[in-house]
Predict the structure of Multiple sugar transport system ATP-binding protein.
Amino acid sequence: MILVTVFWGSVDELGEETVTTVALKDVTKVFKDGTLAVDSINLDVNDGEFMVLLGPSGCGKSTVLRMIAGLEDPTQGAVLLDGELANDLPPRDRKIAMVFQDFALYPHMTVGDNIAFPLRLAGVEPTPRGERVTDVASALGIGDVLARKPGQLSGGQRQRVAMGRAIIRRPGLFLMDEPLSNLDCGLRAELRAEISGLTRELGVTTVYVTHDQAEALTMADRVAIMRRGVLQDVGTPTQVYGRPATLYVAAFLGSPRMNLLEASVYVHLDRYVTLNLGEQSLYLPWDDIRSRAVAHYHGERIVVGMRAEALTPVSPDSPGDVLRGRIRYLEHHGHESLAFLDIGATAIVVDEMGARLDNPPEGQRGLRRFSSVMQRLTGKAVEAADDAAGGTRTSVLPDPGRHHRRPAELAVRLAPYPAVAAGHPLAVAVRMDALHFFDERGGRIDVGWR
Ligand SMILES: Nc1ncnc2c1ncn2[C@@H]1O[C@H](COP(=O)(O)OP(=O)(O)O)[C@@H](O)[C@H]1O
Ligand SMILES: [Mg+2]
């Protein structure tokens, strides 16, 4: 990494101006077949920032990236690079480097020649070219394979070569489209750290696309979360995780996923607000400022979100804000175990896979069930289910607040291998100050608190 800093600061024979900021103003993309892929997006990426575009497959992430690169024209709106309107600027004039998921390298060229290729095109002399390649390659940990052909490399090495080729010209803006999705899990985690380390060291503005929330939360300075072409929320990982702007963002981020329970609101003026969860209730004292915001929904149903970290197992006779239930099943993850409790409440299931919600055909429902089980088991999204569901996707967007219901299985964290089993009763204390509230349409009920 240190080597990179050295060559970055010292050599500048290309002497090119590079892009350092991006702004999207009301950018919309409708494809020829009528697909609304991107819907009025506004987004600013600051100089040197690592921005992650996060969302399920098909939500429009690549289309946004391709519009920044100039590979697609926006149907409406403006793409600004360094504050200048760039809608009509050809891709090669944008001084942008892009790395894709399927990093195509030239198979007949050596690793060194692959990395050097952009410099050769730019007419850089062989000597500085060779030095730059050596520097970049050793920074990326592939200094010893420069003479090999891509076919003789591992997946991780090939991806490093692709990165080397992209950064060798020192772009001001680095676009990466799911660059790690073809790699296995361990390598992904390793390269994740390397990529964010490298781009930060270089100070290069980066827009990084992924459907993997773990990548987004660990790598980003800020995360922009998309759903069906619409930007849902933008903020630091702490902000979007700690105070999600919509029900969708709340459901998308975090593992285990946030518990989302349907609640009926009853106001007892000057005393408290009852959140009726079915067989049990929680109470917001009237002097809690959040109770005033929630009180507007008197007689209506809202969604109460509680992450596992807001729930602590307690003895069954504990007083206070406690929910009681029976363990439906347990999952052991090594470092922790998760208990899923039946508490007689109704869970709200957000259409997190980006497909249509209304009346999914039976097969698709089965697939989604399968995918959510797989997801629980593996902590990973099952892309196949998404692809299968994608067949029914239309350009007519359903009501963004739509969601379906099922009996709640309240996810609670326990110590590894606890002395309880399925069927056992369990009581959990609820940290009331860590609750999230959403209206029926999925918007956050803003209670002026974080
Ligand atoms: N060239 C195209 N013509 C028509 N529809 C497209 C085209 N490219 C992408 N789409 C559609 O636009 C939507 C967004 O696609 P994309 O940006 O690739 O999503 P993501 O990268 O988030 O998976 C999807 O519904 C996709 O099928
Ligand atoms: Mg994509």
